Amino acid sequence: MSADPQLTDLLQAPLVVTGRILPASNHTFLATLGDAGVQCVYKPQSGERPLWDFTDGTLAAREYAAWVVSDHLGWDIVPPTVLREGPAGPGMVQLWVDTVDGVEPVDVVPAGHVPPGFLHVLDAVGADDEPVALVHEDSPALRRMAVFDVVTNNTDRKGGHVLPVASGHRHGVDHGVCFHTDDKLRTVLWGWAGSRLTVEERGGVERVVAGLAPGAALREALEDLLTVVEVDAIARRCERLLRSGTLPLPAPGWPSIPWPPF
Q1: What is the Cα–Cα distance from 24 to 152, expressed in whole angstroms?
Q2: What's the CA gap between 79 and 60, in Å, rounded?
Q3: Is 40 helix (H, G, I), strand (E, B) or coil?
Q4: Fewer Cβ atoms within 10 A, N terminus or C terminus of the chain?
Q5: Distance of CA 165 to the CA centre of its chain
Q6: Comparing C-alpha atoms, which of 21, 39, 18 is closest to residue 87?
Q7: Which DSSP letter does residue 23 get?
Q8: Dist CA 78 CA 59 (whole Å)
Q9: Residue segments in the chain with a per-residue pLDDT below the cut of 50
Q10: What was the pLDDT predicted at 22?
Q11: Up-side HSE of residue 94: CA atoms within 13 Å toward CB?
Q12: What pLDDT, in 10s, does the model give residues 168-213?
């Protein structure tokens, strides 16, 4: 794993809760770190809502596991994240990301009016029964996130989980419902479905496969956070992705879009 001084602060600096972030299915707090007052997000394990398809009390570890995979890829998708003790008990602590106002990597627009540089995902009906379309930008940074979501089997990539930052990069957050052994990909990033993986994307997936070999560092790190069966499922998904060479299409039998999508 990469050496990052931000991780040291996230792990060791005193954690002070300053407010609750709403709405959220699980307890999610805004907090500050030490004297510097660096902002972060704190999700205690004690505040996790039970889910029918994920083992109770595992969401914080899944959030951290998503950062471990992101760090191994080198794509900087997930902000620096740790597991640590906090005022409400152990949980996930993640560096707060300041976003750019007015930039919407995922958006809803009038039907038939896809902006330049954006891809169409689906047509729908808006709050006032008007025809609308769900779209997302066609950028390498967002496309890498789509590949990452396939690798991690993300079942909740909402539009609000994509954070635009000043550099033009895109961060992804809220990865508590990833890494299920069943295929549960549910995302708003379907604009590239069926398109060929780029050389960079293929190389990233190959790095994950190599890291999941017996005794490899990525496998050992993930087996401390997930079950062995779940880690094996990551390898199978990556190998399937490399065999097909294309980003997947929505599969029948499971909702392909999270609800609500934002």
Answers
A1: 21
A2: 14
A3: strand
A4: N
A5: 15
A6: 18
A7: S
A8: 15
A9: 1-2
A10: 85
A11: 27
A12: 899 999 999 999 999 999 999 999 999 999 999 999 999 999 999 9
* Alpha helices for the chain (secondary structure H): 5-12, 59-73, 140-152, 199-211, 217-223, 228-244
Calpha distance 220→12 (Å, rounded): 23
pTM attached to this predicted model: 0.95
Q: How far is it, in rounded angstroms, from Cα 234 to Cα 179?
A: 7
Q: Is 225 helix (H, G, I), strand (E, B) or coil?
A: coil
Q: Is beta strand 29-33 parallel, antiparallel or unpaired with respect to 15-20?
A: antiparallel
Q: Residue 1: how many CB atoms within 10 A of its CB?
A: 11
Instruction: Please report the pLDDT score of residue 24 as a whole number.
Output: 82
Query: What is the Cα 200 distance to its own chain's centre?
Result: 19
- Quick: pLDDT tens for 62-83: 999 999 999 999 999 999 999 9
Q: d(Cα 158, Cα 25) in Å, to the nearest integer? A: 13
Q: Which two tokens stand for residue 16?
A: 């002070």
The maximal CA–CA distance of the chain, rounded, in angstroms, is 56
The encoded tokens of residue 131 equal 């025809």
Round to whole Å and give the CA distance between 20 and 26: 11
